[in-house]
Amino acid sequence: MRLFFFFSVLFVQSLVAQNTVSFEEGTTSPEATLLDVEWMTGHWKGEAFGGITEEIWSPPLGGSMMFSFKLVVNGMVNFYELGHIKEVGGTLLLQLKHFGGDLKGWEEKNDTVDFKLVKLEPNKVFFDDFTLERISDQEINLYVVVGDDEGNQEEVQFNYKRQ
């Protein structure tokens, strides 16, 4: 019975996160540069969370690629994210901060949400529970594991088209 429970848990976890992987403590991030994610550069729009999503990614400059994210629901900004992917110690680190529609920060002043690089594939970049996928020059997917106040987690897909 325990073996059945164990495999049931593994099966459910695989359904929850099919396109993301978690960074395991004690491992190191692979070597990478901004050239590995330069294809993210541009203006992207899609739909998620019951609204319109927009991301704008700058080209590599100064060791980072800056991005902004906006979610608009019923004609009103729900929240923003501001962040970057930066080169650190021969690898990449994705960092971001959240802001409400009124630009009040969610994280403490000096805190960021950090995603360590886990692995690279030709058209996919896997950060800790956050994956960037290049479908074509005109389409990308982002997959993010999000949680709620009860500790439940699910993988959310954002499909974007180049603007």
TrEMBL record:
<dbReference type="InterPro" id="IPR046232">
    <property type="entry name" value="DUF6265"/>
</dbReference>
<dbReference type="Pfam" id="PF19780">
    <property type="entry name" value="DUF6265"/>
</dbReference>
<protein>
    <recommendedName>
        <fullName>DUF6265 domain-containing protein</fullName>
    </recommendedName>
</protein>
<feature type="domain" description="DUF6265">
    <location>
        <begin position="38"/>
        <end position="144"/>
    </location>
</feature>
